[in-house]
Amino acid sequence: MKAGFLALPLIALPFVLNDFWLTQIATRALILGITALSLSFLATYLGVVSFAQITLAGIAGYTIAYFGPNTVGVGIKLPFWVSIPAALLFSVTAGALIGYIARRSRGIYAIMITLAIGVAFFYFTRQNYAVFNGWTGFSGITAPVVAGTSLRDPSTLYFLSLATAAIAVVLVSLFARAPLGLAIQAVRDAPSRVMALGIPVTTPVVAAFAFSGLIAGGGGILNVWYQERISSFSVGLGPIIDVLIIAVIGGLRHPLGAFLGAIVFVLLDTFAVDLIDRDRFNTLIGMVLLIIVMVAPNGLQQLAADAVAKLRAKEHQSGKSARIKTNT
To answer: Which of 22, 23, 28, 3 is nearest to 263 (CA)?
Structure first.
């Protein structure tokens, strides 16, 4: 029932918003939220903050660019029903590989390892021309046309992004309750006990990173269709930090908070020039992040949940008082 109340307004957005608000705000927030969800998933269920999620999204995006139509003359054009599974496969495989590399790391060490991987991928894409077209990257990337409708059409891309976000959230929920998901949470809470039971710790960690690669890959595919280009700047330190900021604002350990954080981030990024000089955007987002961390250390998701809980408690108390007065 709650999901229905939330879904109805989201489905109605294309009918009430113009193309600017629908594409630049709503669709972009959904795409960023999907990528941030992959980070929140690892933070929530594995207890690891990964700085390599933009790398995984970038791998999927570069795959779409290389195997799809572009204007730089690099790559091999394949049907979209081949390039999309290939992009997801590469991002999942890369996620598993990163998980294997970082399998014994926690806390600051996991952050440093994944950050090093992300920065290394950034410089690799900038220097490699055969596959990534170096500094320039790919431009003129066009989304597929299905049944006569381009997936880059504002309403179509929005609904596709919304459906992908909903599927990602459902998959995270189902995966967390599955035996493998429970094993991942056990590794988060007590890895030594998991090893004492004879369960290898490596397998759940690699599986968690691979699953996060699937989610990040979905966001990467949508993002390259949205931007219609991809380059080394798309996987640089700036986007890496942006995804972390989005997850922290929404609530790093609350998967749904990724989308709340994405909305706030996109609104600030879009209208910062009206609030403060564009060059001061990092200062503005830093101030907002500081305020949110001070007011709601667990992010906007927890703040909203606490507000709803207080409202329900107040309604319950009012109803109880009314019943007492009636009885007396």
So the answer is: 28
**Which amino acid does the sequence have at 162?**
L
Query: Looking at residue 255, what is its pLDDT?
Result: 81
How far apart CA 258 and CA 51 sit, in angstroms, is 15
Structure tokens at 225: 């269709």
- Indicate the domain borders of the chain: 2-295
Q: What is the pTM of this model?
A: 0.89
CA dist., res. 235 & res. 230, Å (int): 9
**Beta carbons of 274 and 230 less than 8 angstroms apart:** no
Rounded mean pLDDT of the chain?
88
Dihedral sign for Cα atoms in the order 248, 250, 251, 252: negative
Query: Tokens 């077209």 appear where?
Result: 133
Q: What is the mean pLDDT of residues 150-175?
A: 94
- Assigned token pair, 128: 């490699």
Whole-angstrom distance, CA of residue 253 vs CA of residue 148: 41
* Burial class (CB within 10 angstroms; exposed 0-12, middle 13-18, buried 19+) of 274: exposed
Contact 297, 75 (CB under 8 A): no
What DSSP state is assigned to residue 233? Answer: G
Q: Which amino acid is at 224?
A: V
Q: How far apart are CA 97 and CA 205, in angstroms?
A: 10
267: its two tokens = 């609104």
Specify whether domain 2-295 bears CATH 1.10.3470: yes
Q: Is the pLDDT of residue 195 over 60?
A: yes
DSSP string, 202-228: HHHHHHHHHHHHHHHHHHHHHHHHHHS
Note the pLDDT tens digit of each residue in 260-282: 999 989 998 888 766 666 666 66
Residue 191's pLDDT is what? 80
Rounded to an integer, what distance in angstroms lies between the CA atom of residue 117 and that of residue 101? Answer: 10
